[in-house]
Design brief:
The complex is a heterodimer.
Chain A lengths: L4 E3 L2 E4 L5 E6 L6 E8 L3 E9 L2 E5 L6 E5 L5 E5 L8 E11 L2 E6 L3 E5 L1
Chain B lengths: L3 E4 L2 E5 L5 E6 L7 E6 L6 E6 L5 E4 L2 E6 L4 E6 L8 E7 L3 E2 L3 E6 L1
Parallel strand pairs in B: 2-11
Antiparallel strand pairs in B: 1-3, 3-8, 4-5, 4-9, 6-7, 7-8, 9-10, 9-11
The chains are: A mainly beta, B mainly beta.
Chain lengths: 114, 107
């Protein structure tokens, strides 16, 4: 158990809908990362937040948005869903130890868009 | 935007063998190269990581070899076991991942 929690574990929805994925980082970790993992594209970095502020942006679509709240939990909002958005969505939190950043991944949310 | 190329895509070895997974990166600004292990239904877990000022790092049966001039690094798993069967990802920083290698270790 990494200490990172994600809800829900599974989500089935229809095209055009909007969903929210939630992530709680490990206690004390200020950074949260979101990733999308699909069969044909591996693990793709979407966005990073650090202590409530957006720190880095990757391959995140305009239909997707995220935020990190004062209690450090984060939410990833996916709107106008398309079939191709079906994937596993992971969040990770990180800690600095000995000058090295170590990431801890949550168990993921499996999204199926029908 | 694949800046880390990983090979092979899949690998099958016998128990006790030494699977080797290779990665190549493009951007010389990267300064942190982690490897992750992922079992089915689970999130990736950090296995071992290296910085470019080190040519080799060992942790238990796992070794990273790093060639800064060639911009390549590889993971070796010594005395592989069936329990090592998983998907392995290399990465450059925490934002650029390789496509993954599915390793199967046969008993």
């Amino acid at each position: 158990d990494s200490g990172v929690t994600q809800t829900p574990k599974h989500l089935i929805t229809a095209t055009g809908q909007r969903v929210t994925l939630r992530c709680s980082p490990r206690s004390g970790d200020l950074s949260v990362y979101w990733y999308q993992q699909s069969l044909d594209q591996g693990l793709q970095f979407l966005i990073q937040y650090y202590n409530g502020e957006e720190r880095a942006k990757g391959n995140i679509l305009e239909r997707f948005s995220a935020q990190q709240f004062p209690d450090l939990h984060s939410e990833l909002n996916l709107s106008s869903l398309e079939l191709g958005d079906s994937a596993l969505y992971f969040c990770a939190s990180s800690a600095l130890a000995g000058g090295q950043e170590t990431q801890y991944f949550g168990p993921g949310t499996r999204l199926l868009v029908l | 935007q694949q800046q880390v190329k990983q090979s092979p895509q899949s690998l099958i070895v016998q128990k006790g063998g030494i699977p080797i997974i290779n990665c190549a990166y493009e951007n010389t600004a990267f300064d942190y190269f982690p490897w992750y292990q992922q079992f089915p239904g689970k999130g990736p877990a950090l296995l071992i990581a290296i910085r470019p000022d080190v040519s080799e790092k060992k942790e238990g049966r796992f070794t990273i070899s790093f060639n800064k001039s060639a911009k390549q690094f590889s993971l070796h798993i010594m005395d592989s076991q069936p329990g090592d069967s998983a998907t392995y990802f290399c990465a450059a920083s925490v934002m650029r991942f390789g496509a993954g290698t599915r390793l199967t270790v046969k008993p």
